[in-house]
Amino acid sequence: MSMEIRVPKLPESVADATLVAWRKKPGDAVSRDENLADLETDKVVLEVPSPANGVLQEIRMPAGSVVHSDDLLAIVLAGAAASAAPAAVPSAPAAAKPAAAAADGDKLGPAARRLVQENALNPADIAGSGRDGRVTKSDVVDHLAKSATPATQKPVAAPAVPKTSPVPAAGSRGEQRVPMTRLRQRIAERLLQAQQNAAMLTTFNEVDLTAVMDLRSRHKERFEKEQGVKLGFMSFFVKATVEALKKYPVLNASVDGTDVIYHEYYDIGVAVSTDRGLVVPVLRDATSRSFGDIEKSIVDFATRARAGTLGIEELTGGTFTITNGGVFGSLLSTPILNAPQSAILGMHKTQDRPMAINGAVVIRPMMYLAVTYDHRIIDGREAVQFLVAIKDCLEDPGRMLLGM
């Protein structure tokens, strides 16, 4: 029986998508729920699963096509064997990626299969929590988080950086024209909007991270054993940011026409760099989250951001953003607002520097902090005091426990 493969219903805020690549070609055997194609929107990558076991009979839309909800993509011949499939190939289908091992592939969902392939995992090593032992993408993410080590774990919060191009041969004057991805186009559009629609200004301070580093050193082994995740710096910065926002709520506000909207909740975006570009998943209700919950969420966001499996609901609605250029060695920068938010905190590289403490010169681990803010509603006094409040929380972490 022939079954039509159509573009799934796109999110309300997404008009169309680009068919990035086909994972199968006509004549290939397919399994139910196996990913057949990737659709890229300006926010996320969507997968197109097979509705049944059978053979991919025909591809109607080549890779690179712009598609809309319910457009016909392909035909699957349910129940057929691979040898029975026609050999015809449409114009420019993308080459299929090697499938996961057949013995374990049947228990993988489409998103889980993609994560397994990209991270070179053995499906047999992953415990499945789905129906009949099926491995979900959450199972793969948990497996990756548990097996991550300092030598292999990737940075999780950072501004995007361009890919390195191959070094041209001596005397070469060649050029390449490469179209922007949908996500890169969206990033460019939002950054331009932020510059055109806000009066941005940046102020700086520095923080001594001695107390935070001592606290991590004392408790990191027990924390990891009890929480199942490493204790990083980001949870301290999220907690300190929330405490500072409570004192200076205008930095958690946004502008709507001639109105200022004060948000009475704290949804903190954490910038994550991926090969496709910068994305900002949101930690909802950060004020009620524990250090362990924050660290687990950040690892989960980073893993799924790089796999392109974040949902649109996870990338929208933040009230404040934190970005960390320090993981790439940035010493100082001026971050751009994540509209419609009115402020963003920039973290940077921690570097030992000589400091004058009580009349003596000592070496301390110092980090420069930057906050870019919309001067239309935030005065310099509030921005400076906001950074001082973060500095105070980090230099004396007990303040966060006592609400001081």
Structure description:
This protein is an alpha+beta fold. The protein is 27% helix and 25% strand. The chain contains 9 helices and 19 strands. It has helices at residues 102-105, 110-118, 137-147, 182-197, 210-227, 234-247, 291-307, 380-395, 398-402; strands at 2-6, 17-22, 29-30, 35-40, 45-49, 54-59, 66-67, 72-78, 200-208, 253-256, 259-262, 268-270, 272-274, 277-279, 282-283, 320-324, 343-347, 351-357, 360-374. A hairpin with a 2-residue loop joins strand 13 and strand 14. Helix 2 packs parallel to helix 3 (137-147) and helix 6 (234-247) packs across helix 8.
In short:
With 404 residues, this protein is α+β, with helices and mostly antiparallel strands.
| SS content category | alpha+beta
Report the mean per-residue pLDDT as an integer: 83
Largest sheet geometry: 7 strands, mixed
Helix proportion of residues, in percent? 25-40%
The second-level CATH architecture of the largest domain is 2-Layer Sandwich
**Helix count, per DSSP?**
9
Q: What is the H level of CATH, i.e. the homologous superfamily of the largest domain? A: Chloramphenicol acetyltransferase-like domain
Q: What is the beta-strand fraction?
A: 15-25%
- CATH fold naming of the largest domain: Chloramphenicol Acetyltransferase
Q: Number of domains in the coordinates?
A: 3
Described by the principal axes of the CA atoms, the overall outline is globular
What's the Cα radius of gyration? Answer: 24 Å
- Uncertain segments are 84-103, 149-164
